[in-house]
Here is the input.
Amino acid sequence: MNYIEIKCAVEPVEPWTEILIAELADVGFESFSEEENGFKAYTSACDYRAKPVKEIFERKRDFGPEKLSFEVTKIGSKNWNAVWEGNFEAVTIGGSCHIRAPFHSQNPDVGYDIVIEPKMSFGTGHHETTSLVVEWLLETELQEKSVLDMGCGTGVLAILAAKKGAKPITAIDNYLFAYENTIENAERNGIDDMKVLHGDAKLLGDELYDVVIANITRNVLLEDMAAYNNVLKPGGIMFLSGFLYFDRDIIFDEAMKLGLQNGGEKNLKDWVSLKFLKL
Here is the structure.
């Protein structure tokens, strides 16, 4: 498989890096690497749509940062491992969850050691949206709790839930490479009873869950939140992430319309993650 890399330089870096990453995520980009003067974004070549990407940058040049430039590069599959190995460093979240690649050393001082080979999937723990949900999960009692992870990416959140004793676990992603990557990473971490599905909220049926995780983009959250709520048990918890501070209120209001209760929020840089309770 071939991949597309967009290298973007922007000034000022904040908040424009977060804004551009959010908009690129909405048009299919699944992996990001922040740099000193901007960021790199990645997607598979078959999912790349040049027109909406061009429109994003044209809008920002007219009404946005002081300086903005980007370049698009096609990366062959044989070179992909070198790209992500160069961008992927091990990260420890909350002092007890260490997320690393197979070529990193294990950290013996943490409670949860997770090995992730991300390929093109979103969810290495480096991005604020993933890190915020990891923090929520570390604080939550998950033993024997059923968990649904929507937009699972690498499967890192579902894997952490499994390591904390959650079961059964269902992980869903509509990107084929993410679906395949979650299966691989679950096996890599010794988890053999996770249900992994390729698709979206249309796959949700009668099965109910104690915990629903959705670390996706704003538009998908707004479109599918009712479906997530339908499969959340009374007394259950919903964690939403993947959106910037200026989208916080619209996400929150939609949850209120569904009858969910505010369970708190976490913030990191300009990103927000919300917790809701179902009475």
In short: The chain has eight helices and 14 strands. Residues 125-277 form a domain with the Rossmann fold fold (CATH 3.40.50.150). The chain has two domains: 3-84, 125-277. Helices lie at 16-26, 50-62, 77-87, 128-139, 156-163, 176-188, 218-230, 248-257.
